[in-house]
Amino acid sequence: MSTTATLPTTTLGADGPLVGTQGLGCMGISEFYGDTDAAESRATLDHALELGVTLFDTADVYGSGHNEEFLADFVRANRENLLIATKFGIVRKADDPSFRGFDNSPAYLRASVEASLRRLGVDTIDLYY
Predict the structure, then answer these.
(1) Is the residue at 92 inside a domain?
(2) Pick from 2, 65, 110, 111: most CB atoms within 10 A?
């Protein structure tokens, strides 16, 4: 099925960039909602961009970094046409996947943003929270 519908756009914040009025949360690409399929996930990203989605939201905690790594090729291929949002602060333990702690210290923030930049393969993150 093909469509030519495109999302309306809006300014992000008072003076921010122009974005589609709907973003795509990418959490399910890596975990939380059952089995994942890399080909279907990539097709979803591509189709969302075709429809006018320009804000793609991820986090370092999704798949313990896998989500950002998966998005890297898509982001680099379409960097001029999208904004990447990612977040930090939730801490997981490798030996206890159900554990969720929080850390918003300056040292953890620095380590987290550097790791996210590396996993995403970009020099800047458009929205970091």
Answers:
(1) yes
(2) 65
Q: Considering the domain boundaries, does residue 2 fall inside one?
A: no
Phi then psi dihedrals of residue 22, to 5 deg: -130, 135
pTM for the model = 0.87
Residue 1 lies in a domain: no
Question: How many CB atoms are located within 10 Å of the residue 127 CB?
Answer: 17
Active site residue 108: no
Answer whether residue 63 is part of any domain.
Answer: yes
If one counts the domains in the chain, the total is: 1
d(CA 53, CA 56): 8
Which CATH number fits the domain that encloses residue 110? 3.20.20.100
Tens-of-pLDDT digits for all 129 residues of the chain? 455 568 898 998 899 888 888 999 999 898 888 788 899 999 999 999 999 999 999 999 888 889 999 999 999 999 999 999 999 988 887 787 777 888 899 999 999 999 999 999 999 999 999
